From TrEMBL:
Pfam families membership: Cyt-b5 (PF00173), FA_desaturase (PF00487)
Primary residence: membrane
Annotated ranges, domain Cytochrome b5 heme-binding: 140-216
Pathway recorded for this protein: Lipid metabolism
Protein name from the UniProt record: Cytochrome b5 heme-binding domain-containing protein
Membrane-spanning parts: 38-57, 64-83, 246-268, 309-327, 402-422, 442-460, 466-485
């Protein structure tokens, strides 16, 4: 068993009874460690911009050159503040557990208390809150996982959280994250999924009213389960779920100057080449903005759902044109059923792509029990339609390794369309979101189309307008590539996971997800997507702390024999193209009658890894 060392007070730590925050004693939070992350990661973008502008052969009006040194100066000042934010004297907005709290956690021999997250802060709280006593109401103590598994539909939905069963059937349609994530976890042990997507207040205020009784045979006592849950406990003890506000202030400044630069170059430049440079800068803005959208989508900035969502819709939709509501619905499901052939929308791209022959091979679909012989395909629970192969899909899939990058260059236009579709159908997909944000969705998406149309209309002729649009969207397509490399080459499976130790939460995140090895100073270009394994394990962890999580997760996986795939950006793209090519070859050679079996896949090896 891998022991996760808990932080202990050093000789310089405050004495018991002191209210001073324990910072220097916590691993990874010294004043010398974090500043390098901010200096390298946050100063690189404006520094590169400065070099690019002063050495650029494109004719740029002198009046626009001020756009570069000003943000560099601002980022220098803000970078200094951000680095100091991680020092020994933390301001009230940045907190870690006190010595007293850590002492209490060490004294809890009965396991009645646990570290949880509330508004980003670590809190030491009761693990289980008793439901209010009701006349004639009794609670069971003999529930088995087999019994829970029978309650696996939207209308009859039970989940297990920390060896306790809850009947949440009446809550499914009210769930703020949409009903699909709950349906996909129905009848399962949702302990880890629930912990990583919900604050402490949900355990205290919502769960008790749905309590059914105790489960006798959950995975909670398994050594591997206990060990990997200790990783989350250590992150909480170190206060790493709290966002560094200065880090995000810097991101806002950086985004502001990218947008200002793109608009200024497009409007004020006197040559075609400099106006096209404006389109390129706009692409960089959209890519970097998407990372902030990802942060707010996971409530990883303020950690307040309504606030993060409101700001994300207001600014993300208006400036980027991609619906946050659509993205959250899709992304919530993706995280719960990552790389499931029938359930994960992020790998359902027929007729354009098939990331595995399991998507179209009728023999394998029949073996998995998901083939509809009349439709000759499987039912997508996300898209609510059958996915089947036809002449067009066979033609495209057979050449998908050639088509991948060209399609990524125009993929953003499809996301605009998906956003508008969601805006009209939000009520049936996420009632909570529709109630609070549907009108704002319409207004912001219309606002984006308006300002973008006006900006492009200022270009002198239609050729430049088309070129500007295509260039900006093509370069912004690097974002889609960054997303695809995280999962396209990883293992896929049929149905739902989380049935036992062979496919429990932690293992499944690792075998279906990969990291991109990158320099620390280049983190800004990846926006946290380079740490997809850690992000899938701890989705509410702010991206500036994902490297800290990696330092724990990678050696843990090595110790327990859990797959942990991490390669460079170039290598990850090579693997992606090879994977698409291999599926394309099967499509060509066998006419969608592929060879091989489950026992030959990486998933089989990953799921049966022994610690």
């Amino acid at each position: 068993m891998c022991k996760i060392s808990s932080p202990s007070a050093s000789s310089s730590s405050p004495a018991p009874g002191s209210t001073k925050k324990l910072v220097s004693a916590l691993p990874g939070t010294s004043s010398a460690a974090m500043p390098r992350q901010y200096w390298f990661s946050l100063l690189t973008p404006p520094a590169l911009a400065l070099l690019a502008v002063y050495n650029c052969p494109v004719a740029i009006p002198r009046s626009l050159l001020f756009l570069v040194p000003v943000p560099v100066a601002v980022v220098l000042v803000m970078g200094y503040l951000a680095a100091g934010h991680e020092g020994k004297d933390l301001p009230p907005s940045m907190t870690v557990p006190t010595v007293e709290e850590l002492s209490k956690s060490a004294d809890d021999k009965d396991g009645e208390y646990i570290w949880r997250e509330e508004v980003g802060k670590s809190v030491w709280v009761k693990k289980f809150y008793e439901p209010k006593q009701r006349a004639g109401k009794t609670y069971r103590s003999d529930i088995t996982m087999a019994e829970v598994a029978k309650h696996n539909t939207k209308s009859d939905c039970w989940v297990v959280i920390e060896s306790r069963a809850y009947d949440i059937s009446k809550y499914v349609m009210l769930h703020p994250g949409g009903w699909l994530p709950l349906q996909n976890m129905a009848g399962k042990d949702a302990t880890d999924a629930f912990a990583n997507y919900h604050p402490h207040s949900v355990y205290k205020n919502l769960l008790p009213s749905y309590y059914v009784g105790a489960v006798t045979d959950s995975l909670d006592s398994n050594p591997f389960t206990v060990a990997h849950r200790e990783l989350r406990q250590q992150l909480l003890q170190r206060g790493l779920f709290e966002s560094n506000s200065f880090y995000f202030y810097l991101k806002v400044i950086w985004l502001s100057y990218l947008l200002l630069g793109a608009v200024a170059l497009t409007l004020l430049s006197t040559t075609t080449s400099s106006r096209m440079l404006g389109g390129a800068v706009m692409a960089a803005f959209w890519q970097q903005l998407a990372f902030i959208g990802h942060d707010v989508g996971h409530n990883a900035i303020s950690h307040k759902k309504w606030k993060d969502t409101f700001l994300g819709v207001l600014f993300g939709n208006t400036l980027g044109g991609i619906s946050l509501g659509w993205w959250k619905r899709s992304h919530n499901v993706h995280h719960i059923v990552c790389n499931s052939v029938e359930h994960d929308p992020d790998i359902q791209h027929m007729p354009l792509f098939a990331v595995t022959d399991e998507i179209f091979d009728e023999a394998k679909l029949e073996k998995a029990g998901v083939l509809d012989k009349e439709q000759k395909g499987f039912w997508s629970t996300y898209h609510e339609k059958f996915v089947a192969s036809d002449f067009l899909s066979r033609l495209l899939v057979a050449n998908q390794h050639f088509l991948f990058y060209p399609i990524m260059m125009v993929a953003r236009f499809n996301l605009y369309a998906q956003g508008w579709i969601f805006a009209f159908t939000a009520k049936s997909q996420d009632a909570w979101y529709a109630k609070h944000f549907q009108k704002l969705e319409f207004a912001t998406l219309f606002g984006f189309m308006t300002w973008l149309s006006l900006l492009v209309s200022t270009l002198p002729n239609w050729q430049e307008r088309v070129s500007w649009l295509l260039l900006s969207h093509a370069l912004a397509g690097v974002l889609h590539v960054q997303i695809c490399i995280s999962h396209f080459t990883m293992d896929t499976y049929h149905g739902h996971a989380y049935n036992g130790m062979e496919d429990e939460w932690f293992r499944m995140q690792c075998v279906t997800t990969m990291n991109v090895d990158s320099w620390r100073w280049f983190d800004w270009a990846h926006g946290g997507l380079q740490f997809q394994i850690e992000h899938h394990l701890f989705p509410r962890l702010p991206r500036h702390n994902l490297r800290e999580a990696r330092a724990l997760v990678k050696p843990f996986c090595e110790h327990w024999g859990v797959p942990y795939h991490e390669v460079g950006f170039v290598q990850s793209n090579l693997e992606l193209v090879r994977g698409l090519r291999d599926v394309a070859k099967k499509c060509k050679q066998y006419g969608l009658k592929s060879v091989g079996g489950f026992g030959e896949t990486q998933l089989y090896a990953g799921l049966h890894a022994e610690g």
